[in-house]
Amino acid sequence: MTYILSALGLAALAVLPMLFGDYGTGMLVGLAGYVTLATSWAMFSGPTRYISLATVAFFGVGAYTVAVLNEVLPYPLVLLAAAGIGATMALLVGLSTLRLAGIYFVIFTFGLAELVRQLITWFEVNVTGTLGRYIFLDLEAKHIYWQLLALGAATLALSAWIRRSRLGLALRVIGDDETVAAHSGINLARTKLVLFVASSTIITLVGAIQAPRWVYVEPSIVFNPTVSFLTVIMALLGGATRLWGPLFGAVPLFLLFEWLSARFPDHFSILLGLMFMAVVYALPDGVLAALEKFRRKGNGNSATKPAKEANA
Amino acid sequence: MFLSTLFLGLVLGGTYALLALGLSLQYGIARIMNLAYGEFMLLACFAVTMMFTSWGLGPLWGLLVVVPLGYALGWIIHTVMMRPLIKRSGGGGRLEVDTILATFGLLFVVQGLMLVTFGSDFTSYSYLDRGIGILGTTIAANRLIAFVVSLVIGFGLYAVLIRTRWGRALRAVALAPGSAYLVGIDVNKLGRQGFALGGALAAAGGALVSMFQTFSATDGVVFTMKALIVVIMGGVGNILGALIAGLLLGLAETFVAAFIDPGLTMAATYTMFLAVLLWRPTGLFGKAGG
């Protein structure tokens, strides 16, 4: 039943570009992109509580791979190359930081985007001698939207599968208490690494798929820190430990941000920051958890209160 | 060339050490990882620049103005923003994540405010911009002054923390927040003071950096990053460690810029950071197994 419903839902989403015009389809691309970003971010950071602030590092690498390779390789191979590069980068970052306490990971990812941006800029200026690149691919907005939709659906499916598997259970134990996890025989570093690589590869692919929208690409465009920021706040708003949480956070926030950035272009980052803090203070577990709590209170059946959900 | 690079690196490193000290206090004593640290430093940069260009008040006098303001701002932010998070976490591990997220939001707010107020252009002013000869090399007077003032403040702070009763209480909170209250220490009050002291040091660092470096409203992240690297290399809460790590970072940056490529300074910093993390996660001078 769930499968039929999801297939129907997906089909309904897929015909949306036919109903909206160019502007609407452009919005859909952004929306699908952020839903996928937030869901894949939460796949790793939700249960482990290792806050990654490096979303845009992977996103930008994906976009840049397309910019560099789009004239050399056929499009599917370009995407494959982007995924490979993203996974390798995630493996390196993960291997060097995930064995340490969470705080080191956060700090490292905090600067990673800046580091990657500077390295690419340096390489482009000194080795290839050009800073900007053009992407000429025969892809319309709706094609990009369909790809993102497929990737987003695959991400949700993967998330759902991980939650039911031993891997997901291991992750939740790690998030609750690393010492306990280690004592119950969970290989901490490997579990975290697998998830981090999976999540980062998806993020890289989102960047790669969205890249043709820009046409002109340079490091300061694709490594915009706002992307990392938006991803985190969307996932947190919906609830990073829930399967559908990031989606519920991403949709309203994306629409709100579109409106805000058009209305208040100069004060956008101030509003963003304030909203971010509002989420951290008012909805620490996300909007879904808050709704559940509210409903439980409304029913008044506090006697049969279900056991508090694990780290929700 | 070598000698002048060495001096330049040491002088830069002294300022980095001071910057990192503030962050180290905030994280070590108040247990708050402040990702908006660089933004507070930049606020001081802009304040000192404004006082210099519009009122003709020298940066060293400006320093005396912004340091108390930095303390006050730190105090307010701790009281208004951090206190609810500390209460909510109840001393658990959640505080770390919550404060990182809250200060990450604060970073964007302050940065946005600075962009609106000062624009995104690079800013600088010229103060004592003449060379002084030392051991056959010349070094800009403003850099040298910044270095000396950094050292004075750094060692002064060290003396306060080691010698005075207040300093001992601060160190007790940093070492064992769970037991400090058993000996009559008001952990909340001292945490707040530690955070405010960190704010004062951020302001001091900003005022000194503005004397010799161009800066823009979006540079905060880079400064925060440098301070974080120094703190981790030196070991959290370790003042002498931060001093030495700051000097090392300054040296590494200037040598890479002078002999390899200025575009790779950040990469060099990161490589150093990673190497230290992998080799000694508790910092160069931290105790093993922390």
Helix percentage of chain A: over 70%
Ends apart, CA distance between termini of chain A? 27 Å
Number of E-state strands of chain A: 2
CATH topology of chain A: ABC transporter involved in vitamin B12 uptake, BtuC
- Low-confidence spans of chain A: pLDDT under 50, at least 5 residues? 302-312
Q: What structural class do helix, strand and pairing data of chain B support?
A: mainly alpha
The CATH architecture of chain B would be Orthogonal Bundle
Identify low-pLDDT runs of chain B: none
| CATH architecture title of chain A | Orthogonal Bundle
Elements of chain B, N to C (H/E) = HHHHEEHHHHHHH
The tally of beta strands of chain B, per DSSP, is 2
- Rounded mean pLDDT of chain A is 83
| Oligomeric state of the chains in view | heterodimer
Number of domains of chain B: 1
Gross morphology of chain B = globular
Rg of chain B, nearest Å:
19 Å
Helix- and strand-based class of chain A? mainly alpha
User: What's the CATH first level of chain B?
Assistant: Mainly Alpha
Membrane topology (chain A): Multi-pass membrane protein
Keywords (chain A): Cell membrane, Membrane, Transmembrane, Transmembrane helix
Protein name (chain A): Branched-chain amino acid ABC transporter permease
GO cellular component, one term (chain A): plasma membrane
Q: Would you give an account of this structure?
A:
The complex is a heterodimer of chains A (312) and B (290). Chain A is an all-alpha fold and 312 residues long. Chain A has one domain (21-304): ABC transporter involved in vitamin B12 uptake, BtuC. Helices cover 76% and strands 1% of the residues of chain A. Chain A contains 15 helices and two strands. Chain A has helices at 2-14, 16-19, 22-48, 55-69, 75-97, 102-128, 141-164, 166-176, 178-183, 188-210, 219-222, 226-238, 245-263, 268-282, 287-299; strands at 133-134, 216-217. In chain A, strands 1-2 form a two-stranded antiparallel ribbon. In chain A, helix 5 packs antiparallel against helix 10. Chain A is globular and about 55 Å long. The two termini of chain A are 27 Å apart. The model of chain A is unreliable at 302-312 (pLDDT under 50). Chain B has 290 residues and is mainly alpha-helical. Chain B has one domain (2-279): ABC transporter involved in vitamin B12 uptake, BtuC (Orthogonal Bundle), CATH 1.10.3470. Chain B has eleven helices and two strands. Chain B has helices at residues 2-30, 37-55, 59-89, 94-118, 141-163, 165-175, 177-180, 187-212, 220-234, 239-259, 265-279, and strands at residues 131-134, 137-140. Chain B has a two-stranded antiparallel sheet. Chains A and B meet through helix 6, helix 12 and helix 14 of A and helix 3, helix 4, helix 9 and helix 11 of B. Chain B: This is Branched-chain amino acid ABC transporter permease. Chain B: Keywords: Amino-acid transport, Cell membrane, Membrane, Transmembrane, Transmembrane helix, Transport. Chain B: Pfam families: BPD_transp_2 (PF02653). Chain B: GO terms for molecular function: transmembrane transporter activity. Chain B: It is a multi-pass membrane protein.
